[in-house]
Amino acid sequence: MEFRDSMTLETRRGAKGRHMAAAPDCLFCKIVAGDVPAEVVHVTEHAVAFRDINAQAPTHVLVVPRVHYRNAAELAHGDPEVTAELLRVAAAVAEAEGHADYRLVFNTGESVGQTVFHTHVHLLAGRAMTWPPG
Ligand code: AMP
Ligand code: ZN
Q1: How many domains does the chain have?
Q2: Does residue 1 lie in a domain region?
Q3: What are the catalytic residues?
Q4: Distance from C-alpha of 58 to C-alpha of 65, rounded to nearest angstrom
Q5: Is 109 a pocket residue for ligand 1 (Cβ < 6 Å)?
Q6: Is 11 among the domain residues?
Q7: Omega of the bond prior to 132 within 30 degrees of 0, cis?
Q8: Ligand 1 closest atom vs CA 117
Q9: Given a cut of 60, is residue 10 above it in pLDDT?
Q10: Residue 67 maps to which CATH number?
Q11: What is the CA radius of gyration of the chain?
Q12: Does 115 sit in the ligand 1 pocket, CB within 6 Å?
């Protein structure tokens, strides 16, 4: 595994001895740990889905890995199976909320709107959407 911000990482072992990593000042690591409250809608061994605090659609859920990576590509390099799990969880949440159609967004980098540097996919659904996005 490769971490750009390895100097700020602390590592710990999960219940099953699997390598886990958290960044101490990361908001989404704190949500995963239960240290910051969130409206969690779906959990798996490797991912957590919770409602975006500033919803942009009737369903706006963020799906995050439990392990800390800065963006989708770094997660894909470090843990491809968990990357796929994010998409499976997003599909399950969309189905559970009654949406056959939905949009998934991974912002990567400040200039395209990434504000939290812990990998997350936005699940947006429940209204018509235009293309291209702004
Ligand atoms: P991005 O701009 O792609 O990095 O997405 C970060 C998202 O996190 C934004 O849509 C924010 O509204 C959302 N967000 C920020 N803080 C919280 C929080 N405490 N709970 C839930 N969502 C949050
Ligand atoms: Zn994190």
Answers
A1: 1
A2: no
A3: 120
A4: 23
A5: no
A6: yes
A7: yes
A8: 4
A9: no
A10: 3.30.428.10
A11: 15
A12: yes
